[in-house]
Structure formats: structure tokens, C-alpha cells
Write a structure and sequence with these properties.
- The structure is a homodimer of 338-residue chains.
- By secondary structure, the first copy, chain A, is an alpha/beta fold.
- The first copy, chain A, folds into 2 domains: 138 residues, 3-Layer(aba) Sandwich (Rossmann fold); 184 residues, Dihydrodipicolinate Reductase, domain 2.
- Chain A has 8 helices and 13 strands.
- In chain A, strand 1, helix 1 and strand 2 form a beta-alpha-beta unit.
- In chain A, helix 1 crosses helix 8.
- The longest helix of chain A has 17 residues.
């Protein structure tokens, strides 16, 4: 493993952390050493990585001192506590949480959209919210070609966005429903089996949820488009994995669906799946375990002059979290930015 | 039952027909006689209505001659065949199918929106598509107050929109998934368990589905708003009953969320459920078996100057079909229009 870096994964036992280990192996990430940390109660636990056995450590100053780069797959409050410890020990943090995304000095990066921002880091780079990453990959090529002025987006978000516990709650809720009863929801606000819930994260003062406002503020920051006007409705649906989004876009310059389709077909990280006559369009059930953002149902927005409508689906645990973070790390390594 | 009319229900054994019988009993519809017809293979079958037993008949000229009004709950092609037979026998048709909705001489009616159009009938009145009815009830009060210029809507539609077979297919698909396999979909284009499918009805030349275009053309006709610009994305979700819709509205005159909330609270057929701080908003699981359209998440569309966003859910078998048809019949009876 010479020529690589010393990489740490913080939160390695969680849903996103586990996915990170899987993807690091798949992509043959250039590693000198791979260190893993998790909840102190899990210290000493063994994790498999390729043909190795890794021992879960506690994320201490000594731990970070051994790492060049750390991928953080933990809750915001833990990121807030541990990121300064990593940075003091000269370990670059790539954080998957909401803790630092909107801080001015922190690049917020989707490598297909704004890789150059990685170069501006001051020891910490943030990876955006899952719904935001998926939308940004899909719309950026259209923004580059035609200048997006306004977006209206409705999401159809999988339960795994709420981690392993969200997956379990859907399974238990479906079983209870089949038995004629209901479970008391814990992860979600209401029963998720055979239901949809227009409520993800907390409500803000403007009656949008934080999830919806992340799609506004983070998209603008990633795309360097402070003037872009965005309104979102974020909805949880009884799907295990992969988020879907119905996206209506208004552009400054007219763009036809054919032009948009061509541009998207040649854009990084995107698979265009758009043969409606053959019943081909993106769906969450068939996009799980992929790193691509699938785009289809590309058509003129018939309610406005310069408008395009897209339907997008992507694995939010991978491209929406783990893969995006690792892509940032790959750029860091290949450009010697750690 | 004196003072009532002779009413026929065509398609009385189907999902919507059965719901019609239930609602006619609940609302104590003014009946002289209730006649029921269905597929000729079901002739002679017995159906319960209040304390009576009704015998399924064949929809012949003699059958229609005994009825003042017939509620049609059958497929479009059957409506096309039987409606002329009813009309020739002086039986007013109230049709729930897509067969006649856009014909110029046929009033297309949501009683909360355009009841006066019932008076213009020439023997046939059409009830709109389920998603359209639900949206029209929710947005009409805002249109009256502020003039709607544009709508972007994304739907979350229940499997019962595809009838009893759609319900069965979801149940079977979920069971198969739990057993680690998949069923071959018949009603839907793809597996519906733990998936969402952006495809309802057939695709039109403009790459919108017919379901999506119904929401455009029917809404304009019901609301007498030929200039209203509408774009829809219609999506099937693994929910048994009640459709949900995320609706973004642009108005000619500015309207605040508070004004919209007040107007909607006082509008017919609407229940405003909008206390996000208490996790109260419409959801399909809790709106089934109601005749009301539930509206919540009322907020400013932050992506446009004069915009309002709504989240709506309603039982599409009832208000979206059976109830709407019966409300039209009630108006016909109370205004002596048969």
C-alpha cells in the first residue's frame, strides 16, 4: 500500500461508515494505512476490510496524529467535538454532517460540480446533504449550459436516510400493518408503512423543514449561485434505499429537452435513463448500490417559457454520502492537498 | 323513499361502485329506487344496500328506462358504449371515466368549484380524474382570491387508483419482497413494493403521461381558466389509499400564507391541517374514508414573488371519484335537473 495516505474513518460502524469501507475497497483507494474509530463503547471491535481485520479505536488526539485525512460519518454534534481535535493534529477532515457546511471558510463540495473549491480548504471540507448532492449533480450541467434561475423540487426520500434504525422501523411497521396493528413510531414522526410523511428534520421559522432549506442554501453554495431561487418539499416515502426527486427548472437561456438530454448524457456521474416508451426511467428500487445519479423523464416544463422538468433517483447512502466524501478524498490525494 | 329519484349505479361491483353504494347509504341520498348493473357475467349477483338486497342487472335499454339518473363507475370504453343507450332512454349519465370529460358539450364538474356548470348538461355530466378533483378543491379558493397563473404539482398516488387489483398487487409484492423474491408486475409497470414509479397511464407525444395531462386540461376546464399554466409529475407510491400532492402556485395578486390559510379554512370540502410544530399535516394514512380534501404545509413559495406552496391529501376513491359523482347527483336532484 505504498504511495497512499493514512486515512481514518470516524463512525466506521454506522450505515454510512460501513458503506465507506465497502467503497474504499471497491475503488482501491490509495491507502498507506486505514484507521477506524467509532463510539468509545465500540472500541476494540473488529471490522473487515479487504483481507485485513481492523480494530476500532477511540478518536483521540493520538489517533488523529496518525492520519493524514479523516472521513467523518457521525452526527453533527460529534463532528463539532472531534473535527477541531483532528485539525489540531494536522489531519484534514472531510465531514459528512451538517455541522460546518454553511461556514464561510469551509468548502462544500460535490466533485462533479465544484472540485476546485477543495483547493481552498483550511483543514476541513464538508460534503453536502444527500438530497442536495443528488440534485446538484443532475442540474449542474444544465446550469452551465443555460443558467438556472429557479428550481421547484419535490422529493421522495428513502427511510435509510434516517440510518439503520429507519430501515428497521419500516420493516417493523409493515409487519405490524400486516398483522392489523400499528407500531409506535420512534425514528419517524408517524407510521411510515403504506404512508408518506411531508416532514424531514425539524421545522424552521418559515414553515419549511431544515431538510428543505438545506436544499436551498447548500445548492447555492456548491454551485456559486447566490441568486438561484429554490423551493423544496421534502417527503419521506416507504422505500428502503435511494432518494427520488421531481425537479422543475427555469433557465435564463432557452434549452430544449433534446439539448438537456445530450448535455446530461455527457456529464460526469450521470446515467440518463429516458425511454418512456419502453417504460425506462429512474426508480429507487433499481438505483440502489450505484454511485451514479440517474436522470429521466426529461421534458419541457409546459407551464413556463424556459423550463425543463427532470425526474432523478440515486442511492443516497452512496452518492448522497459515502461516495461523495471518498471522491473528495481522492481529489485531495491526487492533488496533494492534505 | 318517496320524493327521491330512480338511480342506477353502473359498475356496482367494482371498487368505485361499491364505494358509491356505501356513500349513498351514509348520505341518505333521496332514492325512489336503486338499480345496480355490472359486467353481464355478474348478472343475478346480490349486493347489500342498507337493509335491502339488490340484484345485479344487465345494463340494457329497458334497465336505463327505469332510471332517472345513472352513475357510471366503469372503464372508458364501457362508458362510451353504454352512455348513449342511457341517454336515448332519458336517463341522465354522470360518468366517472375519462371517456367524455373533454367534450365541449359535457360539463366537467367538481361541485365545490363549478356547480353551475351542471345546469348546462345535455344528458351527460363528467366527473374529473381523481388527482384533478383533489387539486381543484384545494386551489380554487386561492384562485378566486388571487388569480392563479401557474401551477407545478408533483403527486404521490395510492395503488387503489388502479382499482382492487392494484391493492392486491401491492400486498403480494410486499409479501414477495419479504420472502426475498419479486413478483412479476401486472397492474403496474414495475414492482411497486418499496419503490416509486413515475409513470401513471400512458405516455403522450410530449413525454408527459396522460395522467399528468389530465391534470392540465381538466383543471383548466373545471376552473374556466384556459390561460392557467400547469405542469405535473404523477408518481405511484406504495400507499394503499389516498393521493397526496405537493402543489406550487403562482398568483396574479400577492397572497400571504396566513390569508391563504384563512380562505381555505372557510372553503367547502376542505379541512386545513397545518400545525407543523405539532407534527400536524395531511398524510394519506389518516385521510382514508373521508370526503374532505386535507390541506397543510401552507407556506410562501420562496422561489418566486407571488407564490404559495401547499401539501394536500385526500381519499381518491371517495372525493376523487365516488363522492364527487354523488355530489353532482345530489345537485341534479335538488335543482330538478334530471
Amino acid at each position: 500500500m505504498s504511495g497512499g495516505i493514512n486515512l481514518a474513518v470516524i463512525g466506521a460502524t454506522g450505515a454510512v461508515g460501513q458503506e465507506m469501507l465497502k467503497i474504499l475497497a471497491e475503488r482501491n483507494f490509495p491507502l498507506k494505512n486505514l484507521l477506524v474509530a467509532a463510539d468509545p463503547r465500540e472500541t476494540g471491535q473488529k471490522l473487515k476490510f479487504k483481507d485485513q481485520e481492523l480494530t476500532v479505536q477511540t478518536a483521540s488526539p493520538e489517533f488523529f496524529a496518525q492520519a493524514d485525512v479523516a472521513l467523518f460519518a457521525v452526527e453533527s454534534n460529534i463532528s463539532r467535538n472531534l473535527a477541531p481535535v483532528a485539525m489540531e493534529n494536522k489531519c484534514l477532515v472531510i465531514d459528512n454532517s451538517n455541522a460546518f457546511r454553511m461556514e464561510e471558510k469551509v468548502p462544500l463540495v460535490v466533485p462533479e460540480v465544484n472540485p476546485e473549491d477543495i483547493k481552498l480548504h483550511q483543514g476541513l471540507i464538508a460534503s453536502p446533504n444527500c438530497s442536495t448532492i443528488i440534485m446538484a449533480v443532475a442540474i449542474n450541467p444544465i446550469h452551465q449550459a443555460a443558467g438556472i434561475e429557479r428550481i421547484v423540487v419535490s422529493t421522495y426520500q428513502a427511510v435509510s436516510g434516517a440510518g439503520a434504525a429507519g430501515i428497521d422501523e419500516l420493516t417493523e411497521a409493515v409487519a405490524a400493518y400486516q398483522g392489523g396493528s400499528n407500531i409506535e413510531p420512534i425514528i419517524f414522526q408517524h407510521p411510515i408503512a403504506f404512508n408518506v410523511i411531508p416532514h424531514i428534520d425539524v421545522f424552521e421559522a418559515n414553515d419549511y423543514t431544515r431538510e428543505e432549506m438545506k436544499m436551498v442554501f447548500e445548492t447555492r453554495k456548491i454551485m456559486h449561485a447566490d441568486e438561484m431561487r429554490i423551493a423544496a418539499t421534502a417527503v419521506r416515502v416507504p422505500v428502503y434505499r435511494s432518494h427520488s426527486e421531481a425537479i422543475s427548472i427555469e433557465t435564463r437561456i432557452p434549452i430544449t429537452p433534446e439539448e438537456a438530454r445530450n448535455i446530461l448524457q455527457n456529464a460526469p456521474g450521470i446515467v440518463v435513463l429516458d425511454q418512456p416508451g419502453e417504460n425506462k426511467y429512474p426508480m429507487p428500487l433499481f438505483t440502489a448500490d450505484s454511485d451514479d445519479v440517474f436522470v429521466g423523464r426529461i421534458r419541457k416544463d409546459i407551464s413556463v417559457d424556459n423550463g425543463i422538468v427532470l425526474w432523478v433517483a440515486a442511492d443516497q447512502v452512496r452518492k448522497g454520502a459515502a461516495t461523495n466524501t471518498i471522491q473528495i478524498a481522492e481529489y485531495v490525494v491526487s492533488h496533494n492537498l492534505f
